[in-house]
């Protein structure tokens, strides 16, 4: 297994944080700090819909890419409050987080809708960051692999090996999100390796080896280097620590040096 076969991606998931002026200030602080990552790793900020246009303007010409935090699966129509993939690509958005556990937990997202959103994003030319992960009690009951394997298979149903070149998977154990409880590097590696083995069965080994698999869940400036050193952890999806330019940069530098 060769880590050089895939791109390391450090992505911030800002969640429901930052007004436009705050978003501008944060990205202006991040930009110069992470400029040295250009050509080495991918740096992404996934921001609320209201911040997308500002974020794209502030990061234009820099190595910071912009993502959205969700996308609807229909092309257009009577879906009040929703945003389509075409609306995002027209703005210049490159990435989109899909199936985050907060969407699954609070907004009724299912593997079926995650799959539909993933296909819609890919068909529009977006790069989906598909989130999977087990609940605490599922881990306690010893069914982490069943849960994550099922999510990967259902969420990527009908996705082709060719399209997998644009798919990022984020392994985010739900019990580690926003809790300060990080999975140990060994726990995170074990599941990321399992996800890759599942992809190899679904597609083929070369396709699986080329997929960027991120870890997310209380990744921070202190624990990032150890997590990113693992052979199957190719990046991070960062919540809280992505809201502070210095902390986010420490994680980016860990990936650059890793
Ligand atoms: P925290 O880094 O705040 O735990 O959030 C992780 C996450 O949900 C990223 O999508």
Secondary-structure content class = alpha/beta
Top-tier CATH class: Alpha Beta
- Termini Cα gap: 16 Å
Biggest sheet strand order reads: 1-2-3-4-5-6-7-8
Radius of gyration: 17 Å
CATH superfamily: Aldolase class I
User: Count the helices. How many?
Assistant: 11
The total strand number stands at: 8
Could you estimate the helical fraction of the residues in percent?
40-55%
Ligands in the model, by name, code or SMILES, are: 1,3-dihydroxyacetonephosphate
Largest sheet: 8 strands, parallel, barrel
CATH fold name, please?
Answer: TIM Barrel
Could you explain the architecture of this structure?
The protein is of the alpha/beta class and 258 residues long. It has one domain (9-257): Alpha-Beta Barrel (TIM Barrel), CATH 3.20.20. The chain has eleven helices and eight strands. The protein has helices spanning 20-34, 52-59, 85-91, 101-106, 111-124, 136-140, 144-155, 185-202, 205-209, 224-228, 245-257; strands at 9-13, 42-46, 64-68, 95-98, 127-132, 168-171, 212-216, 235-238. An eight-stranded parallel beta barrel has the order 1-2-3-4-5-6-7-8, surrounded by six helices. Strand 2 (42-46), helix 2 (52-59) and strand 3 (64-68) form a beta-alpha-beta unit. It is globular and about 45 Å long. The model has no long low-confidence stretch (mean pLDDT 97).
Task: Record keyword descriptors for this entry.
8-stranded parallel barrel; 258 residues; 11 helices; alpha/beta; TIM Barrel
Summarize the structure.
With 258 residues, the protein is an alpha/beta fold.
């Amino acid at each position: 297994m060769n880590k050089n076969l895939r791109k390391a991606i450090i992505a911030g998931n800002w969640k429901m944080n930052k007004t436009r002026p705050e978003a501008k200030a944060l990205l202006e602080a991040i930009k110069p700090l992470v400029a040295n990552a250009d050509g080495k790793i991918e740096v992404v900020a996934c921001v609320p819909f209201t911040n997308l246009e500002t974020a794209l303007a502030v990061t234009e010409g820099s190595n910071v890419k912009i993502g959205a935090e969700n996308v609807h699966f229909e092309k257009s129509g009577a879906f009040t409050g929703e945003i389509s993939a075409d609306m995002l690509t027209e703005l210049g958005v490159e990435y989109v987080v899909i199936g985050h556990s907060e969407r699954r937990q609070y907004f009724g997202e299912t593997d079926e809708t995650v799959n539909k959103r993933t296909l819609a994003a890919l068909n529009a030319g977006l790069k989906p960051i598909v989130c999977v992960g087990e609940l605490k009690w599922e881990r306690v009951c010893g069914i982490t692999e069943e849960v994550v394997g099922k999510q990967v298979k259902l969420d990527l149903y009908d996705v082709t090996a060719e399209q997998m070149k644009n798919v990022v998977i984020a392994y985010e154990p739900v019990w580690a999100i926003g809790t300060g409880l990080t999975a140990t590097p060994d726990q995170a590696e074990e599941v990321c390796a399992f996800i890759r083995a599942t992809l190899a069965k679904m597609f083929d080994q070369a396709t699986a080896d080329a997929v960027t698999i991120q870890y997310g869940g209380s990744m921070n400036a202190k624990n990032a280097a150890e997590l990113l050193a693992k052979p199957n952890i190719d990046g991070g999806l960062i919540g809280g620590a992505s809201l502070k330019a210095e902390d986010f940069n420490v994680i980016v530098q860990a990936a650059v040096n890793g």
